[in-house]
Amino acid sequence: MKHGIKISIAEDNLPVLMTADERKLKQILYNLLSNAVKFSPDGGSVMIAARHLTPGNGDWVTREGKVFSLPVTLEPKSVPENRWVEISVTDSGIGILREDLQRIFDPFEQVESSTSRRYQGTGLGLSLTKKLVDLHGGKIWAESEGVGKGSKFTFVIPA
Predict the structure, then answer these.
(1) Bridge partners of 84?
(2) How far is residue 121 from each of residues 60, 71, 90, 107, measured CA to CA in Å?
(3) Is pLDDT above 90 for 110?
């Protein structure tokens, strides 16, 4: 509220029920949302979205039947009933260079150099988040069109 950041939820396809460790899932969401707010400018926006996924003919299918591919490989046969949930947090923040999209999940990694750092943090939040997603048997990734163009963090876990 202090910085006028608009937070919205995509309510169209929210999962009705999922099985997950409640505390770990809350920590994942807290880490992603707090980063999104921290790196968004005053008056920016943050959106969280969630939807169910099921595998189908080598692709993934939403509850409405929309077919698409994920940028990660999942083992759907290892999940009872092949149900997954995808949750994403999108912001209008500072963005991330393509070459930094993987390393930001490493411990103590931050995109900014220590001499020019404007944002506080240890560089452990995304590393911890990745470990918690891994513990659920899921995957996490980041997308950005580059500096100044915002970021989208998405994770999928068995539902």
Answers:
(1) 53, 158
(2) 36, 28, 20, 12
(3) no
Residue whose C-alpha is closest to residue 108's, from 93, 122, 90, 126: 122
Six token digits for residue 105 = 């999940």
Specify the pLDDT at position 159. Answer: 82
Q: Minimal CA–CA distance to 129: which of 140, 120, 114, 121?
A: 140
Percent over 90 (pLDDT), the chain: 53
69 CB-near residues (< 8 Å, 6+ apart): 59, 60
Report the predicted TM-score, pTM, of the whole model to 2 decimal places: 0.85
Q: What is the 3-state secondary structure (H, E, C) of the chain?
A: CCCCCEEEEECCCCCCCCCCCHHHHHHHHHHHHHHHHHCCCCCCEEEEEEEEEEEECCEEEECCCCEECCCCCCCHHHCHHHCEEEEEEEECCCCCCHHHCCHHHCCCCCCCCCCCCCCCCCCCHHHHHHHHHHHCCCEEEEECCCCCCCEEEEEEEEC
Residue 87 has a pLDDT of 93
